[in-house]
Amino acid sequence: MNHKHPHYPHLFEPLDLGFTTLQNRILMGSMHTGLEEEKNGFKKLARYYRERADGEVGLIVTGGVAPNRAGWVFPFSSRLASKAQVPKHRIVTDLVHETGTKICLQILHSGRYGYHPFCVAPSAIRAPINRFRPKALSEKGVRSTIDDFARCAELTRLAGYDGVEIMGSEGYLINQFIAEKTNRRSDRWGGDFTRRSRLPTEIVQAVRGRVGDDFIIIFRLSMLDLVKGGSSWDQVVTLAKSIEKAGATIINTGIGWHEARVPTIATMVPRATFTWVTGQLKHEVGLPLVATNRINMPDEAERALAERRCDMVSMARPFLADPHWVSKTRLGKIQDINTCIGCNQACLDHIFSKQTASCLVNPRACRELEAPVVMAQVSKSIAVVGGGPAGLACSCAAAERGHRVTLFEKESEIGGQFLLAANIPGKEEFTETLRYFKAQLGKLQVKVKLQTVPSVEALVAYDEIVIATGVRPRELRIEGSDHHKVISYQELISGQQEAGKKVAVIGAGGIGFDAASYLLHEPDSRPDPDKFMAEWGIDRDYRGSGGICAAVEAEPLREVFLLQRKTTKPGATLGKTTGWIHRSMLKRNGVKFLVGVRYLSIDDRGLKIEQQGETKTLEVDTVVVCAGQESQIELASRLDEAEISYHLIGGARKAAEVDAKRAIFEAFELADAM
Ligand code: NAP
Ligand code: SF4
Predict the structure, then answer these.
(1) Is the pLDDT of residue 359 over 90?
(2) Which end of the chain has fewer beta carbons closer than 10 Å to its terminal beta carbon, N or C?
(3) Could you tell me if the CB of 472 is within 6 A of ligand 1?
């Protein structure tokens, strides 16, 4: 008998696909990790997927695998084109199939996004995000590409997978054939929409013909291209219907081409913003549909299913953050979910800089073999001083290993820099990380002593001392820097000080950008999908092609100048995959970027600066100092004087360019070594 889950009845309803049944409605979305190309990487990959399968996810879709050399995402990226490559995939499927989870391999042909000289496309039009110009496929080339998809699917079956996902979205090869903007062919593969969409339909037919009826075929369909010259809504529907007819089992949602200038997965995208588009297609086709993008907590996932917008929900990054997301949800342990905050810092930013993916909030991700939780042989008493990201992560990781941990925090609340980050509009997800840590501190019986700075004498009693006292804002040292107009970013973002209508922000690093963003918005503005879509020109009514329209005019709260001394592009240190979003948001709100600036003085008139040999005064009401940080190491110095050894982590160890990713990683490394 099928008992409904008391809180998440839709999430935990099995999905019967006719020839096989998925244990729940949760799909782990495709995500390249970098392990695919590492030597012996498949053993690590198998462990990585197995941990998510142990966490009870219904269906896993692997990272993209090319069906041939031209389809590589980058040189020598993973490919499945011959029998010799099958055994390494077997390691993955065998380990996953010891559980109730199913696993599909994603077949991804990158087309003109392929970062290599062999890339091909419907037409020889270079992508704006790639320096390699593709070769236009010949008719014979198109035929053999279809055959390569079918061959890859056949090998996938041989490797023990339960199915494939055919990547038809995000602006990759199939999407390039569908869109007029990238397909200028005049043969049977180009021209009107029917001919442009022939490739995806024939690929699905060819794959179905080769793998038989009892094999899952997911088609990832671009439901919202978010580029000019993309599909219209009618075309999306027409294609979905022909994909259904061609023999697909499930249709997954694709949102936005990689070259689209609209954020689709970054943290400022409100949760579940794009589920409406999948919901719109629900009325048109009979196949199960999967909703995607910025679904990271159970309530949003359940709501999308309950409102019949979809039949499954896909999450990719949330499974890096927490492999046990599903089992925790099933058991009602929502407080214990380590939530993906959408920062991209350790996942996509790593992949785009050729490093193995991991996760800012879970540095064990993709390191399941190298860095498992191992119980300590001797349970030690450990004092951790500082309740910011480093101290919190170290306390929890050490306690999880069986140590007895006491955490000292000088403020009345734990969180440190996370408390500030959570106040930035579009960074509200940081409150989830704080909720998670608070729950873990309780569960792991860490003794938390708030408003307490321990004495050296008190610390000596512990077996190990960890100093994670973090950073303090660097003070500005120019004439008038003690003027009442001058405030620190901490004072601004914590709400201790209010800024006037015209503001100069000194320092254009991550915090300068955050402070500018804070100044432009109402402090209590909450994530609002409709507002977000209007601001970024996403057309819910799908009046034109690609689902885009003109963005609404910004109504900034203040006039903001963002300054730096360097002459380089402001925000050069921001994340690889998110920096452009911050820059374009500030520009749209009229922020004036000034580079190559020398700060001279501050007085009642404002901030006096020199730029290109010219002296001028910015007549501002407030000057916010975001000039980096310095380590807070007073306690560490006292321990040095007393010749007591300790461990130093996070910003207290090195303030330059410290961020939560490094702080948490160092915390885990230390906790594992103690
Ligand atoms: P940061 O990135 O080092 O930037 C500090 C800024 O202050 C620089 O723009 C620097 O530019 C300026 N500066 C340095 N010394 C100065 C001085 N004596 N007088 C005037 N200006 C000075 O540090 P942050 O902005 O404080 O950020 C700290 C860390 O948090 C960084 O690693 C950052 O990546 C991370 N973070 C990231 C994000 C994100 O969105 N990913 C958001 C917040 C923070 P000039 O020397 O050219 O003037
Ligand atoms: Fe999510 Fe950030 Fe972790 Fe990536 S690094 S999975 S975006 S929390």
Answers:
(1) yes
(2) N
(3) no
> Within 10 Å of residue 1's Cβ, how many Cβ atoms?
2
**Continuous segment of H or E residues that includes residue 22:** strand 21-22
Residue 672 CA: distances (Å) to CA of 285, 292, 357: 51, 35, 20
159-to-32, 86, 89, 256 alpha-carbon distances in Å: 19, 5, 6, 31
Q: What is the pLDDT, as a whole number, of residue 576? A: 84
- Tell me: pLDDT of 323 over 60: yes
d(CA 113, CA 217): 24
Give the whole-angstrom CA distance, residue 288 versus residue 308. Answer: 11
- 8 A C-beta contact, residue 324 and residue 362: no
| Position 41, amino acid | G
Whether pLDDT at 1 is above 80 = no
Buried b (16+ CB within 10 A) or exposed e, 70-99: bbbbeeebbbbbeeeebebbebbbebbbeb
Local structure of residue 47 (DSSP, 8 states): H
pTM as predicted:
0.95
> Cα separation of 27 and 46, whole Å?
17
Among protein residues, the one whose CA lies closest to atom 8 of ligand 2: 340
Token duo for residue 632:
């807070």
Neighbour-count burial for 416-425, b at 16+ CB within 10 Å, e otherwise: bbbbbbbbbb
For 23, 68, 262, the CA distances from 137, given in Å and listed in that order, are: 41, 13, 29
- What's phi and psi for 368, nearest 5 deg? -60, -35
Please list, in sequence order, all residues whose beta carbon lies within 8 angstroms of the beta carbon of residue 154, skipping any fewer than 6 positions away.
Answer: 210, 211
> Which of 319, 347, 358 most suits a substitution to test ligand 2, by most atoms within 8 Å of the C-beta?
347
Handedness of CA 497, 500, 501, 502 (dihedral sign): negative
Q: How far apart are the first and last CA of the chain?
A: 48
Q: Which ligand is nearest to the CA of 626?
A: 1
Which residue has its alpha carbon closest to ligand 2 atom 6?
A: 317
Query: Tokens in use for 450?
Result: 């708030």
Tokens of 258: 């990689």
Q: What is the pLDDT of residues 295-322, one digit of tens each?
A: 999 999 999 999 999 999 999 999 999 9
| Identity of residue 632 | Q
Which residues, at least 6 apart from 88, have a Cβ–Cβ distance to it below 8 Å? 42
Which residue carries 């930035």 as its tokens?
A: 424
CB atoms within 10 A of CB 283: 8
Instruction: Report CA(346)–ligand 2 centroid distance (Å).
Output: 6
| Atom number in ligand 2 closest to CA 320 | 6
